[in-house]
TrEMBL record:
Keywords: Hydrolase, Metal-binding, Zinc
Record: residues binding Zn(2+) 2: 91, 126, 371
Protein name: Allantoate amidohydrolase
Keyword set includes Chloroplast: no
Cofactor annotation remark: Binds 2 Zn(2+) ions per subunit.
Lineage summary: Bacteria, Bacillati, Actinomycetota, Actinomycetes, Micromonosporales
Keyword presence, Protease: no
């Protein structure tokens, strides 16, 4: 093992037990809950150890500064700590741990930035607690209204403002204006790098994607006494909609997933009064995505007519097609001699890309699996990621 891989492992092991579910082996690191608060304290400690003052943006995201926070032209790197339910270890934290280690690499090489280098930890990237992904970057950039964000509630009814302990501050153009570029390092969420036999890639684009809530309303009634012909069962409309989403996505080479469902009253012997399903839909082109969601909506509505149920559809979040800054991506590809990959996954980098030159680095994932405990990366590849990130920071902040 190289010295850098060993240092990666040492730092990584500090986080390994935090929020880990013994049974699944996955992580429950929801934004602003105990494990994530522990990780945020760890972030402050790491920054402190490196003499990097930490500032919050008033929305729950943290920024550790190497250099004068008021100097401007800063290069931001980092990612997020929060996970999906029973998620993998690498999605998010890898970008933060790698950022601190890249700072160490630059310092060990005696490199001094001429522009500040900033390590960031964005809050609620997955949207697993409050429903809207990339909430921290959307707030910072003003892409979500403060009132809406403040009022988002988790499953227990706690609002984002309550969890944060204050009303989120919202857009901060002054802070945003001090960043000249953002580079997010992330574990790859597919097997392209395995096939290319390369440890690190540069991102080209993020598919447009979003989340739509389908509320199917019917009539709650007794499972034993209600004749089949008399039922208004929203579970049927829901089930049909899930199959329709799958079919419509396949027809378009797009992605549609219904992986979260809530049933009321959720009893074995009661016809449900209401079923809610969340559709996650993604496609390479905005028109394809729009056509997909519209087709699913039309099929669900038609089925609801037949079932005697009612459908209400709510768009909970939408992220447009992101084409990362071509000039920056080209510069990094040449610098690192790395392949270029698009992705269907969402990232804070996708939100920030509309506001400042942004790039992403992907680190090889041998299983190709993500949002699952099976997500993985070798220490050697993580070290290669740190080396790549250090070179990028040197290129962007030290010349
Ligand atoms: C975040 O990882 C997403 O793509 O939903
Ligand atoms: Mn994720
Ligand atoms: Mn992520």
């Amino acid at each position: 093992m190289t010295d850098l891989a060993a240092r990666f492992r040492q730092l990584w092991d500090e986080l390994a037990p935090v929020g880990r579910d013994e049974r699944s082996g996955g992580y429950l690191r929801y934004a602003l809950t105990e494990p994530e608060l522990w990780l945020r304290a760890w972030f402050r400690e790491q920054a402190d150890r490196r003499g990097m003052p930490v500032h919050s943006d008033g929305n729950g995201s943290l920024f550790a500064w190497w250099g004068d926070p008021l100097a401007g032209d800063a290069v931001l790197t980092g990612s997020h700590f929060d996970s999906v339910p029973h998620g993998g270890a690498y999605d998010g934290p890898l970008g933060i741990v790698s950022a601190f280690l890249a700072v160490d690499e630059l310092r060990a090489a005696g490199v001094t930035p001429v522009r500040p280098v900033v390590v960031g930890a964005f809050v609620e990237e997955e949207g697993a607690r409050f429903g809207v992904p990339c909430l921290g970057s959307r707030l910072l950039t003003g892409e979500i209204a403060v009132d809406r964000a403040a009022g988002l509630r988790d499953a227990a009814g706690v609002s984002f403002a309550e969890a944060l302990g204050e009303r989120p501050a919202g857009a901060d153009p002054a802070l945003l204006g001090r960043f000249a570029a953002f580079v997010e390092l992330h574990v790859e969420q597919g097997r392209a790098l395995v096939e290319l036999a390369a440890p690190v890639a540069v991102a080209s684009a993020i598919w447009p994607h979003g989340r739509w809530r389908f509320d199917f309303h019917g009539e709650g009634n007794h499972a034993g006494t209600t004749r089949m012909a008399d039922r208004r069962d929203p579970m049927l409309t829901y089930a049909f909609t899930v199959l329709a989403a799958n079919k419509e996505a396949r027809l378009r080479d797009a992605h549609a997933t219904v992986a979260r469902v809530a049933v009321e009253p959720n009893a074995t012997n009661a016809i449900p009064a209401k079923v809610t399903g969340w559709l996650d839909a993604r496609a390479a082109e905005p028109a394809t995505l729009h056509g997909l969601v519209e087709a699913v909506r039309a099929k669900a509505a038609e089925r609801a007519r037949r079932d005697g149920t009612e459908l209400t559809l709510t768009e909970e979040s939408a992220t447009p097609l992101v084409g990362f800054d071509g000039g920056l991506a080209k510069r990094l590809t040449t610098l690192l001699d790395a392949p270029v990959l698009p992705t269907g996954a969402g990232h804070d980098a996708g939100v920030l890309a509309a506001h400042l030159p942004t790039a992403m680095l992907f680190v090889r994932n041998p299983t190709g699996v993500s949002h699952s405990p099976a997500e993985s990366a070798t220490d050697a590849d993580c070290a290669a990621g740190v080396t790549a990130l250090a070179r990028v920071l040197e290129e962007l902040a030290c010349r």
